[in-house]
Amino acid sequence: MRDFEDHIVKVGLKLDTSRSDFLVIAELVIGAGTHAGKTCAIGIRRSDGNPWVPENAVHVRPHLVTMGQAASQASPLGGEWQYLSRRFDRPPSAKNFLTHILTVVGEL
């Protein structure tokens, strides 16, 4: 998980460190798809496992699709957040997981 946090900072994204249970990317500009150009926050559940295996979930704020569509549901982060259930089948490197997040929000 620490490698992922370091990678987020290295590529110039801002982290919101106010939560201990989720890593929150504060301002991600969506680069592709119907939401291209919009800014959202991304939440990823923290895990101390070694090796790190990310959860099959990307939490976004604000909602990017109608709740219940595109494998979305309520998020434990609160009502303004949306849980997007997505498989992550690549080796769990920091770069691969960030690519996965960018792909998920870009395909909505």
Task: Describe the structure in your own words.
The chain is of the alpha+beta class and 108 residues long. Helices cover 20% and strands 31% of the residues. It is built from 2 helices and 6 strands; from the N terminus they run αββββββα. The protein has helices at 2-10, 94-106; strands spanning 15-16, 22-29, 39-45, 57-61, 72-75, 78-85. Strands 1-2-3-4-6-5 form a 6-stranded antiparallel beta sheet. Helix 1 (2-10) crosses helix 2 (94-106). It starts with a helix and ends with a helix.
Keywords:
single chain, about 110 residues, alpha+beta, Ubiquitin Conjugating Enzyme, six-stranded antiparallel sheet, 2 helices
Structural class of the helices, strands and pairings?
alpha+beta
User: Main beta sheet, described?
Assistant: 6 strands, antiparallel
Question: What's the overall average pLDDT, rounded?
Answer: 93
Helical content class: 10-25%
Multimer state: single chain
Biggest sheet, strands in spatial order? Answer: 1-2-3-4-6-5
| Number of E-type strands | 6
- The secondary-structure element order is HEEEEEEH
| Total tally of structural domains | 1
Query: What is the number of helices?
Result: 2
Taking all Cα atoms into account, the compactness measure Rg is: 13 Å
Terminal residue distance: 26 Å
How much of the sequence is in beta strands? 25-35%
Say what the CATH topology is. Answer: Ubiquitin Conjugating Enzyme
Q: At CATH's second level, what is the architecture?
A: Roll
Q: What is the CATH C-level name?
A: Alpha Beta
Assign an overall shape: globular
Residue stretches low in confidence (pLDDT < 50, at least 5 long) are none
